[in-house]
Amino acid sequence: MNDTQLRDNLAAERTRLANERTLLAYIRTALALAGAGAILLHFFPYHPWLWAIAGVLIGAGGLVTMVGAYRFVTVGRRIPGSRG
C-alpha cells in the first residue's frame, strides 16, 4: 500500500467515525427531547396543556431519531469503501 492509498483509507475512516459521532449526537438530542416530555408528564400530570407540550417533545424526539438514522445511512453509502 503506497502513501496515497494509506491517506485515502485513513480519510475514509475519519469520515466514517465522524458519521457515527453525528448519529450519536442525533440520538443524544432525541433522548433529551423525549426525556423532557416524560418529565413534564411525571411532575405535572394535572395540567392538560402541558400534556400537549410533552406530546410534542416526545414526538420531536422520535422524529429526530428517524432523521438521524436516515442521514447516517445515506451519508454512510456515499463514503468510499463503506460497507453500507
TrEMBL record:
<feature type="domain" description="DUF202">
    <location>
        <begin position="14"/>
        <end position="77"/>
    </location>
</feature>
<keyword id="KW-1133">Transmembrane helix</keyword>
<feature type="transmembrane region" description="Helical">
    <location>
        <begin position="23"/>
        <end position="44"/>
    </location>
</feature>
<keyword id="KW-0812">Transmembrane</keyword>
<dbReference type="InterPro" id="IPR003807">
    <property type="entry name" value="DUF202"/>
</dbReference>
<keyword id="KW-0472">Membrane</keyword>
<feature type="transmembrane region" description="Helical">
    <location>
        <begin position="50"/>
        <end position="73"/>
    </location>
</feature>
<protein>
    <submittedName>
        <fullName>DUF202 domain-containing protein</fullName>
    </submittedName>
</protein>
<dbReference type="Pfam" id="PF02656">
    <property type="entry name" value="DUF202"/>
</dbReference>
